[in-house]
Amino acid sequence: MPAACDSVLEDIEDIVSAEDLKPHDRQFVRKNIFPKVRKRNSQKNIQSDDDPPSDSIIPGAQKIWIRTWGCSHNNSDGEYMAGQLAAYGYKITDNSAEADLWLLNSCTVKNPAEDHFRNSIKKAQEGKKKVVLAGCVPQAQPRQDYLKGLSIIGVQQIDRVVEVVEETIKGHSVRLLGQKKDNGKRLGGARLDLPKIRKNPLIEIISINTGCLNACTYCKTKHARGDLASYPIEELVDRAKQSFQEGVCEIWLTSEDTGAYGRDIGTDLPTLLWKLVEAIPEGAMLRLGMTNPPYILEHLEEMAKILNHPRVYAFLHIPVQSASDSVLMDMKREYCVADFKQVVDFLKEKVPGITIATDIICGFPGETDEDFQETMKLVEQYRFPSLFINQFYPRPGTPAAKMHQVPAAVKKQRTKDLSQLFHSYNPYDHKVGERQRVLVTEESFDSNYYVAHNPFYEQVLVPKDPLLMGKMVEVNIYEAGKHFMKGQPVSDARVYTASITRPLAKGEVSGLTEEFRHAPRNGTNWKAHPSAEIPVESPLRSWMALPLPWQRGGGGLKMLSVSLALLAVLVVFYYGGMKTEL
3-state SS of 153-200? Predict the structure, then answer.
């Protein structure tokens, strides 16, 4: 029997039987075929107009409300996140009700701050808002029950906030909590040249380092910010110069402990400050943030010289926390009361008129009445013009939370007693009649005055004249209160314009270079900043995330993948049921 392959096939038509449809018959039949709409009988396939499928959401078109609690470092992080989101196209709104997403930037120092944070989460959920959490609370304790199922951006990952917001809007839960490292060495955090929106266009907050070298038994911030990691001096100076080019006239240096700056990278705080002073234009000022006593003791001589510089506020925030050595030992503060007094006495002598601000905790575990009286005596002796009084709150997971607690009523009474002592004296009465030089930078809470600061960073209220904003002027002090003085500008005095250019408008994004402004959205000329992987709690289209202009690297391949995927969908849709003519 001949094999099937032995027969010769003269033409393709030879395999078509007489019963098969001919091409013209097939075409005639197709003209009588109409597309049929497939019914969706499953409730889960139904999407409401208010909740469109995630693939149909256009990133960057939503409104975002940002709320920040806590220190100036946290405020700086909030400004950076706002800037990146605005640069990508999201609208930052002051109206929480109209926002599509709430970005809540938390503080873990005290219980009340976390309570406000928790209540805001609940309010957002009740209002059907998307939520992204940031700051020290979720970084320190991401597994808390009330944080479950919510997106979190870690304190060192703020340069990836756009990715987290985009995925959250699509209904995904994303958590970025990793640490930034370079060859195994921990970095200070996100880059300093990221876009940002300054809360006050005249004030730039620069974080010089993150974390600290201490292990205070009451501190929860350490769990979030970790060990000391400093930014290089050249990056900090560049950031300061950029700020002045954008109309800033006042710089705040901030961190968990500015005095420890540089110990991890082979430099120190005075070296940084002298470099920064060189970059400050006439009429602008620099304010130094909080420093603990141990790390400034060895630099007292240099610090006194710097604080005497005309473009540096003669102001220093040095927390003492308690005037009892036994309490300080239980706190693991690594200094004694004599060390604190040595710092204050030396600076008061070498920097006449300097303002020393300090912090005190009332009712720390084990604090006796005698311990507290020592603290009262210290305040009576120095009469600090700026005193931050805090009732002790045990923070979960800290050693102090496991210590024997002072009764709540006793803590409350001690806080009240110290507050009464603080309000019993007026630190500025003797300054009435003085002529002072002040820098005007903001508006008062009651909107009746502009707020300025004299060379000692003491608050001076001046008339609400728009011509004064951002200027350094001379005023005559005619009234003094507990926390402020009032001054009248001197008509014949010289007015300094500190800004070397026009300040940015309120809400305007800082750090948008010409290269960024004209960069294509697909980011083909940019590169992503190396960071931790993205753990997800639902399918995350991370490979599709558009690279952002401040994340340097190639995004062309990703865009090609997106285009091909969309093309494939169209092909399937076209041939999967629509009327087609051959």
Answer: ECCCCHHHHHHHHHHHHCCCCEEECCCCEECCEECCCCCCCCCECCCC
Interatomic CA distance for residues 375 and 369, integer angstroms = 10
* Rounded Cα gap, residues 275 and 190, in angstroms: 22
Place of tokens 């990278």: 265
d(CA 356, CA 350): 13
**By mean pLDDT, which of 43-47, 219-223, 352-356 is the weakest?**
43-47
3-state secondary structure (DSSP) of residue 321: strand
99 burial via Cβ count (<10 Å: 0-12, 13-18, 19+) = buried
Question: Virtual CA dihedral for 267, 268, 274, 278, nearest 10 degrees?
Answer: 50
Tokens for 548, please give them: 């952002």
Four-residue CA torsion sign, 186, 188, 189, 193: negative
Q: Are strands 229-230 and 209-210 parallel, antiparallel or unpaired?
A: antiparallel
DSSP string computed for 555-567? -HHHHHHHHHHHH
Residue 299 contacts residue 290 (beta carbons within 8 Å): no
Q: What is the pTM of this model?
A: 0.79
In tens, the pLDDT along 436-470 reads 999 999 999 999 999 999 999 999 999 999 999 99
Residue 313 CA neighbour count, 13 Å, CB half: 26
Give tens-digit pLDDT for 230-288. Answer: 999 999 999 999 999 999 999 999 999 999 999 999 999 999 999 999 999 988 999 99
Pair type for strands 471-480 and 435-443: antiparallel
Highest mean pLDDT among 43-47, 346-350, 498-502, 568-572: 346-350
Name the residue type at position 415. Answer: T
Is residue 96 within 8 A of residue 102, CB to CB? The reply is yes
Return all residues near 557 (Cβ < 8 A) that are at least 6 apart: none
Task: Report residue 29 as tokens.
Answer: 């039949």
